[in-house]
Design goal:
α4 packs antiparallel against α10, α8 crosses α9 and α9 crosses α11. The chain has a single domain, classed as Cytochrome P450 (Cytochrome p450, Orthogonal Bundle), CATH 1.10.630.10. The chain has about 425 residues and is of the alpha+beta class. The chain is built from 19 helices and eleven strands. The chain has a four-stranded mixed beta sheet. Strands 3-10-9 form a three-stranded antiparallel beta sheet. A hairpin with a 3-residue loop joins β6 and β7. Keywords: Heme, Iron, Membrane, Metal-binding, Monooxygenase, Oxidoreductase, Transmembrane, Transmembrane helix.
Length: about 425
């Protein structure tokens, strides 16, 4: 905002102090432009959602409580969603041909859009009924920066036109979904969120916009994370061998033709796989957490943040700060998160505070458990069942695209064509 004071916070200790202050530092003002400009909510919807945002009675706070309650480990709604997604993803994996050449990012994107949307929205999922909406969604997503930032139309008329046209098509599709009782077969999580909106008096059109926004939350991070995890492992033969050995050791019956990877077991007994996953998250997290000061605020009895200012905490910078991660902070190291790493107590504390791929404190992403479950079980199955080879002499891994507004994990600046082949001896295996 023109003339507004901005503070950039990169110290892990200060970031924690900022995020723990939920009275004089507020997150909801950062969301209002997203709801109004990016999603197109009308003023009645904005007023309804953000009135009394941080009180027990406010709708915004209730949305966050419902998300947390629905996606906590052990809840029926999370178990249901994980079971649905797993079955749909692995059903596609089992039907893959023995050999094919794919554009890896496009392949992951298509797979996750099809399975996540059908699992979440049920039998009347708009994207299943009209697959062309997948292209429409990504055309909208690629151009929403101009809407979110409030870029004047005359500076970027083509992007504005594309963003608004595609958004209208998507909102219309979800309006039809709601009017056709699509929620009847949706997963419990989506039913809970939409039911909250209906109960609070949110219009059908605004509810349709909320459903559209939920897709960004559901697949916005899992798609790029899955891509980076796959290519980071397959492009390193020694690492691939080590992780495969870890995963194979967790299988209960090595002679069985049916393979079922257990998420909890992976987390507990595959330290190299988990460390690699965390390192991918560290290297590719690009979003900046934002707060607004409701009043003059003193942080740690030392730093004064003036009222009316914006406080930014850029994850991408925090994740590569050499004072926290060492002189090789900008280098991928799959062993960095191993518990066997020799670190001082101070280093461990600082790194724990600095590692924030899912945000932190009261804005910690409620979907982090679901995202990790989906990524790790899918990637683990692909690692066991398939080989991936470059179509050239070696893997030419695209760089991360840092030019776009980082609403999610960083995407690659381009795609990479690879050969996906069934592993010898694993062709008859079925993943469940």
């Amino acid at each position: 905002m023109s003339g507004q004071k901005n503070y950039i916070v990169t110290s892990p200790e200060l970031v924690q102090a900022v995020q723990r202050n939920t009275t004089s530092l507020s997150f909801s003002p950062a969301m209002i432009p997203a709801f109004r400009r990016m999603m197109g909510f009308d003023e009645a919807g904005i007023e309804l959602i953000f009135r009394d945002a941080h009180t027990e009675n406010g709708m915004y706070g209730e949305i966050h409580r419902v998300q947390k309650a629905s996606l906590l480990p052990g809840t029926e709604s999370l178990d249901e969603l994980c079971t649905l997604i797993r079955a749909k993803l692995l059903n596609i994996v089992n039907k893959l041909s023995s050999s094919q050449t794919i554009d890896l990012y496009a392949w992951v994107q298509d797979l996750f859009m099809r399975t996540n949307n059908s699992a979440c929205f049920g039998e009347k999922d708009p994207f299943t009924l009209d697959p062309s909406l997948n292209w429409t969604f990504w055309a909208w997503e690629a151009n929403i920066k101009v809407l979110l930032l409030g870029v004047p139309w005359f500076l970027s008329p083509k992007k504005h036109s594309t963003a608004q046209r595609t958004r209208k098509e998507l909102v219309d599709a979800f309006l039809k979904y709601l009017n056709d009782s699509g929620l009847d077969t949706a997963c419990s999580f989506i039913k809970e969120l939409s039911g909250l909106g209906i109960r609070r008096g949110l219009s059908n059109e605004n509810n349709a916009r909320a459903l559209l926004g939920s897709i960004l939350a559901i697949v916005g991070n899992t798609i790029p994370t899955t891509f980076w995890l796959l290519i980071s492992i397959f492009s390193r033969p020694d690492l691939l061998k080590e992780i495969r050995s870890e995963i194979e050791a967790t299988l209960e019956d090595s002679l069985s033709r049916t393979i079922s990877l257990d998420y909890t077991t992976i987390r507990e007994k595959c330290p190299v796989f988990m460390s690699t996953y965390d390192e991918v998250l560290r290297m590719t997290s690009g979003i900046a957490t934002v707060r607004y000061t409701n009043e003059d605020t003193l942080i740690q009895d030392r730093w004064l943040l003036k009222k009316g200012a914006q406080v930014q905490m850029p994850t991408a910078f925090i994740h590569v700060d050499p004072t926290t991660w060492g002189t090789d902070a900008d280098v991928f190291d799959h062993t960095r998160f191993l518990k066997s790493m020799v670190l001082t107590k101070e280093q461990k504390t600082r790194r724990a505070a600095a590692f924030r791929p899912f945000g932190g404190d009261n804005t910690l992403c409620p979907g982090r458990h679901f995202a990790s479950y989906e990524v790790l079980t899918f990637v683990g199955s692909v690692l066991l069942g398939f080989d991936m080879t470059p179509t050239t002499d070696s893997f030419i891994v695209p760089p991360m695209d840092r030019s776009k507004l980082p609403l999610t994990s960083l995407k690659p600046a381009g795609d990479i064509k690879v050969n996906l082949l069934r592993r010898p001896g694993w062709g008859e295996m079925e993943f469940r």
